[in-house]
Sequence to fold (804 residues):
Amino acid sequence: MIKYDIENEKVYIGLNSLFYFLEIYNLEIDLKNRQVKGNFDDKNIDIKFNDNDSFIMDNSIYIDINSLKEKLNFKVADFDFSLLTLTLVPNFSLPYEIREKSKIERLRLDEEKLEEEIDVNMTSKIFSPGFLKINWSKSDLKNSNYNFEYEYGTQFLYGDLYLSGELYPKNKIVYGNLTYSNFFKNNDLILGNFSMITPHFINLDSEIIGISLKEEDTYMTRDGGITTIKGEAENAQVIELYREFTLIDYIYPKSKYFEFKIFDGILNSDYILKIYYNDGRIEEKKVFSLTDMDILEKGKNRTSIQVGKNSNNGNPQGISHIYYGLTDNLTVGLGAMNLISSNEKKYRFLENDIIFNTQHKTFPTLITYRNFFETKEKENSYNLIIDQKLKSYSLKFLQEKYSPFVFNENKIKEYTSISLGKSFNKNSFEIGFNDKKYFEDLKDYESKNIYLSWYTSIFSPLSFSIKMEKDIYRNNNYSVFYPSISYSGIFSIILDGEIGKEREDKYYTQNYNLRLTKRDIEIIKNKLFLDIGIYARYSNINEKFRYGITFNLKLDDYVHLDFTSSTNINEDRNRNTINSIKMTKLLNLNSPLDKADNNSSVSNSWITGKVYLDKNGNHIFDNNDIPLPNVEILVDNRSFIIDKNGKYVANGISGNKISTVTVNRKTIDPTYKNTDGPLKIKSKNSSILHLDIPIQPISIISGNIILTEDFTEKQFIQNLSLINILLEKDNEVVAETDPEFDGMYFFEDVLPGKYTIKFNYLGYENIDFSSNSIEIEVKNSDEGDYFEGLDTEMIKKEKEEDKN
Fold:
């Protein structure tokens, strides 16, 4: 209730109605003395109002809004006459906030328990039959040549074994490794083929056969104005690369390893990968900088060792590195490298690293210094990166300097860049300067340029970017523009170009590229799918124009079939069409007759079992239990339908991760419920888990909180609003509820078992119950039951002095 004194332009609020609205029931209002007394928020309240700030009307005290703010501890107390709204912000917690915070805290603790606790672990084995995928392909139907290849994944010697090779035209193993995940401090131990992380300034084939102990992840390096992004994605069909909100590139990976190289010199951007797997999964990954990963807490260390030889020429290669956190802000590193480049040049480096992060909240600074000492030539090279955040701006300084022994191969003597970037409202701007000194044909050269870039996704999913670059060294008048438009929605399209002009040239050189792809167009439901790709290239240097269309038909039932037709038409209008075909069959060697998703990887995990009505509640499928057909199983929200015998096969599950397995409640009888609820499963590569899921009928429990003569009806209703009722099983809360306005309460979806109902009063009054807890047993049966009459009386708690 609000009263307005027009003559004095004052607003008064009725305390009785305000306290009732805010559920503040333990403060006593004394009308005669215009006084408020009691205990609230663990404080004794004793406030008296006078004629200047209050009056009595309708059996209530009305107080001036300013006095409310001052005397009753409100941060804001304001009335808007134009909107007729009252705004109150208290400096204390209200009863309903206390209740909600309590519930949220319990939910948070329960969620933490779910994250920490894994219900089922797929165990490593000495050996399991595993999975075999056979690929038969013909790259050109006009030719008689074909390829017959295989992939094999299994558990071997308690590790994950992966092999791939050819059966025809040559019988050989192409790739293989044995991986022990999290072998040492989150590092994976890999025996066999792996990708070595080497310095960017050495031209080296990174695929090695040997031993690797390193934390495997997708990462990027920024050196010499080039951003390199590398990673692993087994069984990926398409990988898209996004900068901020803009699709800037995509690839069809030919192996589990992939790599992007970005040459535009932009150093302040963040990148996201969107990976489309053959089995239908879509994964988004943030790309981490190696520098980001190198900061350690005080006293912690990380070690990596990679030793082996090149798979193509047998050159020995070796890298070892250790990082140690001196403080939470300062990490140092020491490494040794013994490498042979593709030009057969031998390098012996000692690497020293210093990484410093101020970790300031508003203006954080990250400094990374890496020094490479060539032990044989006694020469030093170094990289220095300084990242400075200035609120919403990012300032980056990068400098690289290389010794003669190094730049004789990589040509770069010195590279310096400085850039300033800012991102806001789906826009990103960057301005920068690059200075590159290089050595080529026994001569020294230098180039200096400035650039300005802008990209926006205001019209998402349509994005636009443009970079303008100008050479300023010795008045060279070279300018270049890089426009790009991309769209990622029902299809993916990238149109980019390069437009440049030298001072002596009359015309601009122009190069344009267009790529468009549309995946998984359903031709016949669940049977036939089509991928289509269109690409075109144009260059005005030789008036060349090329374009082509690629079709990829996929038929998947017992065998996955890909048919591809690619047509290229060059600038002379000569047409060249190539038709190819590929057939893939995946076999579960544990049970070869089981139908398998042929798009699944041999490194994926499987979960199989039955969903059944657990009639005796023993969590074991036995003779009396009834399989339930046509039930939907959800694994990380991927759907798998149970057959008529109650059996399900969930395949294509990523290995070495935690997945959630549950039953779609909508696909079972409303009176039934999954006994165990959602289960956290820790999967292993190339493993099978047998998991039967019991279903039991549910019951309803109900009762009443009964009014006694200790309270008036108004007091009873007020007290009910501060009561919370818990349902416990084995001393753990499984459900909670609040009573209705008349005292009735109920719990739905109660599974068979022994329970305790507990009544809690959250207010400050001396409220108690005739029965603070009630025991009840819900017995197993074919159908649920309704339990009622579980009542308790609301009574006044005895004071300590009364007991004495």
